[in-house]
Design a protein that fits this description.
Distance between the termini: 37 Å
Shape: globular
CATH class of the largest domain: Alpha Beta
Number of helices: 20
Number of strands: 28
Helix content: 25-40%
CATH topology of the largest domain: polyphosphate kinase like
Length: 724
């Protein structure tokens, strides 16, 4: 049995009629993400529109997928990423758009244009190149006898037993269609009654592969699973003639209605909400079917014309893009990057001594996430470790972090884990992790009522000869070893008492009845983080002079918050040079006369997803650098539990400052935001091209090489084992 199952509620003012939920300290949520009347679709207001900026990011990802300098299968990966991102756009953003709003209309048209451009490039460019490279879809008419026989057996033994045809009769309700599921539509008629057309649906099982490999002498030959279904459609409808078939894929809104005030098991509440989400409205229907069939389905589902997206073939390029991971074809791929060992950890026989002596920053995926697993595993196995406290937002399907926490709990250590059950699209996964941790004996907190816990923190409490010492890991990214190979993030290890005391108080705040502390080092949202950022920006403006202008460099995923944007505008007017690296959405308009002349914004789209949040303030020569889990968005600052912390070790601080400058010098994968909201690809001199991620890979490899050549700091003789 688990030790505790808690849904944490912040103490403080009660919910009052007509007000949002309050939390301690007089905090009150701000409403909306943009200043009233300050946004326009043509980029003439003080703020750029969030939805249009998000679509600009998707266009940059698509451009990477269309860049001929990238290997063929790398381009195919980006095509799949665009499909996945646009699925999320329709699930999360489109339901919030007001139908009559000019910005909403512009966003809808921009999304349609982008998807059509993606599809055309895939069909007209990538398919011929794939075929030339030995990867080809085989038409039914081109199958040889062996392939036809193989597909017949596959249909009979693997596919047919799990299919369930469903009649779309006029007097029946349309069944609930799985979000992002693929459905074959069949037009049927009884013999001699072709004028009396009936329609039926067949859901294609999502647990079967979309790509069905064919026996072939060379290359990779395949059909799509819907091809097999079409070839055998008659077997599903005996006694009927199959007049035509089509394919459709519905996208449902992803919002959930959660009553966080219900006095019952919150895991049960979340499980019910996840199930209810399956019946959310359809906001997009992708169709590849004859016009009459499309019209029938649209009418039965009650959809508007604008919600129908028609394609001749090749629905769901996200699943088709799995071709990029096909074994072999190395000449068509980018050489795989293997994260390098963290050399400080490699040389350390005593992990705890290493962290007592120095702070360590780790840059993923250039350096391996294995150090986090080692940190937790050694804590689990060390008899002197008394307790581990951990936040989990997205842990992934396979997790060494979860395994280590389970081991620690089973060995009798006090393990407390806050598992955020409201992490979007990871709700079911996190519910399962929470159950496993409870079964191992951990105390599991299901999150904080009214807020999402997005902070990334781990605290290890250890008994040592000098007394109790605490070790801390903080990060800009999730405790997820899969995404740590794909996302660029910074992890930070320390045992300094000020950090440890703050993180300990932070855990007490989110797991027990503790008021927010007066932090020595960290800042936490939704309390002082916004205020601290505003003060840091204002200080830079106040100390800026013509002779020595201030400098702010910041790297983040999204910049949406109007209050922070206005503070940056004010700093720019005071002469502060503001250099921003914003990977995704940016509502700030740079380079506008009398508003933001001293602000530049770039976005890097490359092989790894830029995810780290790093903030630098020149502070009149007394440089300060911060890392954070939070983007500069209202949701992060007002509706999430987040952490920002300074990096004070001189070597670590210098490394992060140089990292920001390196990103800002990228002229191969960087895009510069224009004042009208569009982006321009930067192109440097051919002899001076600089690709930041490529350089970081080279630096990590060189660091490993130099460590391998250097002598160890201390020679350790081997001795005979002690007698039993």
């Amino acid at each position: 049995m688990g030790r505790a199952r808690v849904r944490r509620r912040f103490p403080g003012a009660p919910v009052r009629a007509g007000q949002g939920r309050h939390v301690p300290g007089g905090f009150r949520r701000r409403r909306g993400s943009q200043a009233e009347g300050r946004v326009s679709p043509d980029g003439e207001g003080a703020f750029l529109d969030r939805e249009l900026s998000l679509l600009e990011f998707q266009a940059r990802v698509l451009s990477e997928g269309m860049d001929p300098s990238n290997p063929l299968l790398e381009r195919l990966k980006f095509i799949g990423i665009v499909s996945s991102n646009m699925d999320e756009f329709f699930m999360n953003r489109v339901p919030r758009l007001e139908r009559k709003n000019p910005v909403a209309e512009a966003a809808r048209q921009k999304s349609r244009d982008l998807l059509q451009r993606q599809w055309r490039y895939f069909v007209e460019t990538l398919i011929p190149e794939l075929e030339a490279g030995g990867i080809a879809r085989v038409a039914a008419s081109a199958l040889d006898e062996r392939q036809t026989s193989y597909l017949g057996r596959f249909f009979a033994s693997e596919l047919f037993p799990v299919l369930t045809p469903i009649a779309l009769a006029p007097d029946r309700e349309v069944p609930v269609l799985a979000n992002l599921g693929l459905f074959l539509i069949a037009a049927l008629a009884e013999p001699g009654r072709r004028n009396a057309v009936k329609y039926a649906l067949v859901e294609i099982p999502q647990n079967l592969p979309r790509l069905v490999a064919l026996p072939a002498q060379n290359g990779y030959r395949f059909v799509l699973i819907e091809d097999v279904l079409r070839m055998n459609a008659g077997a599903l409808f005996p006694g009927y003639e199959v007049l035509a078939t089509g394919l459709m894929r519905p996208t449902r809104a992803a919002g959930m209605s959660i009553d966080e005030e219900r006095d019952e098991d919150f895991m049960k509440v979340m499980s019910e909400a996840v199930k209810a989400r399956r019946q959310n409205p359809v906001v997009r229907l992708e169709v590849s079917a004859p016009a009459e069939m499309t019209a029938f389905v649209r009418e039965r589902l009650g959809l508007a014309e604008a919600e129908i997206f028609e394609y001749p073939d090749w629905l769901d390029l996200k699943s088709v893009s799995q071709l990029a991971f096909q074994a072999g074809f190395e000449e068509l791929k980018r050489p795989a990057w293997e994260p390098r060992p963290v050399m400080e950890f490699e040389r350390a026989d005593d992990l705890w001594k290493l962290l007592r002596d120095s702070d360590v920053i780790v840059h993923h995926p250039y350096e391996s996430f294995d150090v986090v697993g080692r940190f937790l595993r050694e804590a689990a196995e060390d008899p002197d470790v008394l307790a581990i406290k951990q936040t989990l937002y997205r842990a992934g399907r396979q997790s060494s972090v979860i395994n280590a926490l389970e081991l620690a709990a089973e060995r009798g250590k006090r393990v407390t884990v806050l598992v955020e059950l409201k992490a979007r699209f990871d709700e079911e996964n996190n519910i399962e992790w929470a159950r496993r941790l409870e079964a191992a004996g951990a105390s599991v907190i299901y999150g904080v009522a009214g807020l999402k816990t997005h902070a990334k923190a781990c605290l290890v409490v250890r008994r040592e000869p000098e007394g109790i010492r605490r070790y801390v890991h903080l990060s800009t990214g999730n405790y997820n070893e899969r995404t740590a190979r794909l996302y660029s993030d910074i992890g930070f290890f320390t045992s300094k008492e000020d950090y440890a005391a703050d993180v300990s108080a932070f855990f007490n705040m989110i797991t027990g009845y503790s008021q927010p502390a007066n932090w020595a080092k960290i800042e936490a949202a939704p309390y002082g983080l916004r205020r601290r950022l505003l003060r840091l920006i204002a200080r830079e403006a106040m100390t800026s002079t013509k002779a020595r202008p201030g400098l702010i460099m910041a790297k983040m995923n999204s910049l949406v918050d109007p209050e922070l944007i206005e503070a940056l505008y004010a700093a720019s007017k005071a002469g502060v040079q503001v250099r921003l690296n914003v990977r995704g959405v940016c509502c700030l308009r740079p380079g506008v006369k009398d508003l933001s002349e001293n602000i530049e914004v770039v976005s890097i789209v490359d092989m790894f997803l830029e995810h780290a949040r790093i903030f630098y303030f020149a502070n009149h020569g007394e440089e300060e650098v911060y890392l954070s889990s939070a983007d500069w968005m209202p949701r992060n600052l007002d509706r999430r539990v987040e952490i920002m912390f300074p990096v004070e070790d001189p070597a670590c601080r210098r490394e992060l400052g140089e990292l920001l400058k390196l990103y800002l010098r990228d002229n191969e994968k960087a895009w510069q935001l224009q004042g009208d909201g569009s982006y321009r690809k930067l192109a440097g001199d051919a002899k001076k091209r600089l690709r930041a991620q490529e350089q970081l890979c080279s630096r990590a490899a060189e660091k490993q090489r130099l460590f391998a050549k250097s002598a160890p700091a201390q020679l350790k003789p081997r001795t005979a084992p002690k007698p039993a």
